Amino acid sequence: xxxxxxxxxxxxxxxxxxxxxxxxxxxxxxxxxxxxxSQSYGHARIIPGLIDVHTHxxxxxxxSDGDPETIRIWQKYLPQEGVTSFLPGTxxxxxxxxxxxxxxxxxxxxxxxxxxxxxxxxxxxxxxxSHEYPGAYDKYLIQKPDIAQFDRFMExxxxxxxxxxxxxxxxxxxQLLKYCAASGLEVAVGFSGVSYEEMMQAVExxxxxxxxxxxxxxxxxxRKPGLPGAALSCNDLYSEVIADGxxxxxxxxxxxxKCKGKDRLxxxxxxxxxxxxxxxxxxxVDRKVTIGEDGVGRLPDGRLAGSCITMIQSVRNLQTLGxxxxxxxxxxxxxxxARMLKLDDHLGLIETGYQADLTIYNDDYQILQTFVSGIxxxxxEKTQ
Length: 384
Description:
- This protein has 2 domains: 2-46 and 350-376, Roll (Urease, subunit C, domain 1), CATH 2.30.40.10; 50-341, TIM Barrel, CATH 3.20.20.140.
- It contains 10 helices and 22 strands.
- It has helices spanning 68-77, 95-109, 147-156, 175-182, 196-205, 226-233, 250-264, 311-320, 326-333, 335-340, and strands at 2-11, 14-23, 26-31, 39-40, 45-48, 50-55, 57-58, 61-62, 83-90, 122-124, 161-166, 186-189, 207-210, 238-242, 265-268, 280-283, 288-291, 296-298, 304-307, 358-361, 367-372, 375-376.
- The strands form 4 sheets. Strands 1, 2, 3, 4, 5, 20, 21 and 22 form an 8-stranded mixed sheet that branches. Strands 6-9-10-11-12-13-14-15 form an 8-stranded parallel sheet.
- Strand 7 (57-58) and strand 8 form a beta hairpin.
- It starts with a strand and ends in an 8-residue tail after the last strand.
């Protein structure tokens, strides 16, 4: 049991002086004052733990490698950037490699490791993308949406897939989309050239989010709004954004945020295996990438190949680059993600009974401490 306090604790979408009692992995009491003998963080901000639902790797390792140790290293690192929960995201690979990757992630999840961020589930981003908008992935490994194959993926994951990416225009009669939605999974549409009209039907059929808005999709046109037009105009859709100022221009970050508001914007890192590595040239199993001084990976032909941004930088950038309100930025990294995944009964808010997942940072957006289920993850706590 521990009591922690600050003059700025994020409760009901505002910062107030408060003391939190953390016990048995939960927030058990909230006092709207600073209690004596509590562990004080002064004027540092205490917010719900950051959640990254779209991330692929770290420090040379990728979720699709099929290596459990890669997941463990990544899981242990993430609290350093304030992340308390994440979905390892597999990408477009051959079926055997995806099965191997899912089994590896499953094995780590079932270890129930307390030395790092939670893994509430897996994001199956590929292989159901479009050939027209494949992103940085091999077109020859793209596969047509198939329920039987998806069932094999789900079995390999031990039932831990909770989010699925689909280019719905390739899904005949939206069969896989409907199947996943009926199973309670969150369906994200991306790497897609879907028309606006079909996308709106996909929403009716159960799609709930759009993968990294404006990246790897058809362009917005005033007579053919396509997927970005649906992402911006449909109130029922959550829309991801990569807030590094490179994947989308800062003014477009602002447009996406203004259209989605404080309740439907979702910020992601879309981090690749090159996150945490120095700028330079790297070769992996499936690609050759140059990491620039701007922290962004690029293929030899100049295409973007993932980000190296952190979640806490993303929260800051939504405000400084995107000129969005603080409430929009914080919600985009916390409660919106929890609601999208239907995990908001225990994640994403500072409320009694919720998981004691907390991110603490100073005015320079440096992480001072991260609590995961009430356990401090930074052994050498930083001072303000």
